[in-house]
């Protein structure tokens, strides 16, 4: 599904799943619904107000999968041919197929883990168990578990069915996301191998192509990392809101910013609830950042090899290759800085008054960096 002429295949599946989920929520009445966790508070927990089910899937995950598909398509049809080995196209295809065969068991393992943990574990261990008991206890109330608090709107039986379908959809989303990370790592490994396999003559002739492809590949991995971290942040943000005393998520974020600026003295507080999505969001951001730095190390290694070989042929090539290497290193530092900012924002979500301002800054910087990379990828060698 990642590889094909239409790189919108997976995003379309994600959007279709989100649309079907929204229709289900509307049918049972939980698309926009409130309950009273404490006297005097009508808390909005509807699906349409949950960033982890809306913005995350429709925007961040869809963009992530689109970039992975575009990058894979470019790698197979365009980039590999620019540093062809002496074996020609048949040899390159065989090498890539072997790498894909090596990655296949990991994708199957990811599918099994998603079915076991996300679908069965989260559905049976969290939703079905709480709905069967009919008592929420200190569990976080979302658009599904609200059936216990609002039986006048949605029945427990309806909530069980919807929760099963929602978690099955989540299982597919996480499988596609983590499989995309596996493909990015495979492409970075293939680039490292191709760059390291160059002899001195070819390295001198193809130094520009190598740095151009390495920069584009690293830029795509960077943008995927940005959207991966924003996806994890939206999961955690929704959980933080659901265990807070905010009435709706927009008013809650606005109130937090106003309180930090001194425009209001009404600071928000916490409800006595447990947020299990904290674990999910941490795992997503950890794996995403790990893959980012692993890919960066592989691409850096490949370009250093090309740089050293090119410099040994002609004196003029040495200074040119060193200039491209310095340019690439500056780009990597910028990327790492943005990833660091987004990670700090993730860690500090809901920990202090005014966190919403850091959230806005982080989203702006991350999205602007990806837009800049997309606009300059064709004109800058090694830049984001």
From TrEMBL:
Q: Does the keyword Transmembrane helix apply?
A: yes
Give the transmembrane region(s). Answer: 12-33, 53-72, 107-130, 172-196, 217-235, 275-295, 335-352
What's the domain of life for this entry? Bacteria
- Keyword field: Membrane, Transmembrane, Transmembrane helix
Record-given protein name: Putative membrane protein
> What is the protein's species of origin?
Mameliella alba
């Amino acid at each position: 599904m990642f590889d094909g002429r239409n790189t919108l295949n997976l995003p379309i599946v994600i959007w279709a799943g989100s649309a079907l989920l929204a229709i289900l929520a509307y049918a049972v009445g939980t698309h926009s619904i409130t309950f009273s966790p404490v006297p005097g508070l009508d808390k909005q927990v509807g699906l349409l107000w949950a960033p982890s089910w809306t913005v995350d899937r429709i925007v961040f995950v869809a963009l992530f999968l689109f970039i992975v598909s575009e990058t894979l398509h470019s790698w197979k049809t365009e980039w590999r041919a620019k540093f062809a080995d002496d074996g020609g196209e048949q040899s390159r295809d065989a090498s890539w197929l072997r790498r894909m065969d090596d990655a296949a068991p990991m994708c199957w393992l990811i599918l099994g883990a998603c079915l076991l943990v996300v679908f069965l574990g989260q559905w049976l261990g969290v939703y079905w168990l709480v709905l069967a008991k009919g008592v929420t206890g200190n569990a976080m109330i979302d658009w599904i578990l609200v059936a216990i608090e609002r039986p006048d709107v949605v029945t427990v039986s309806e909530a069980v069915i919807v929760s099963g379908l929602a978690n099955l959809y989540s299982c597919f989303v996480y499988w596609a996301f983590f499989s995309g990370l596996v493909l990015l790592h495979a492409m970075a490994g293939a680039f490292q191998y191709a760059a390291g396999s160059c002899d001195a003559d070819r390295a001198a002739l193809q130094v520009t192509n190598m740095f151009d492809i390495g920069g584009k590949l690293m830029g795509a991995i960077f943008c995927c990392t940005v959207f991966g971290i924003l996806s994890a942040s939206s999961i955690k943000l929704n959980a933080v809101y659901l265990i807070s005393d905010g009435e709706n998520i927009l008013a809650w974020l606005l109130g937090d910013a106003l309180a930090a600026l001194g425009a209001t003295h009404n600071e928000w507080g916490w409800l006595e609830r447990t947020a299990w999505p904290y674990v999910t969001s941490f795992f997503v951001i950890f794996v995403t950042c790990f893959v980012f730095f692993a890919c960066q190390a592989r691409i850096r290694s490949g370009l250093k090899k090309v740089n050293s070989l090119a410099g040994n042929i002609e004196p003029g090539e040495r200074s040119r290759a060193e200039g491209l290497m310095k340019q690439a290193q500056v780009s990597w530092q910028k990327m790492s800085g943005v990833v660091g900012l987004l990670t700090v924002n993730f860690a500090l979500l809901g920990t202090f008054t005014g966190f919403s301002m850091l959230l806005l800054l982080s989203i702006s910087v991350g999205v602007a960096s990806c837009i800049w990379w997309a606009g300059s990828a064709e004109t800058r060698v090694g830049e984001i």
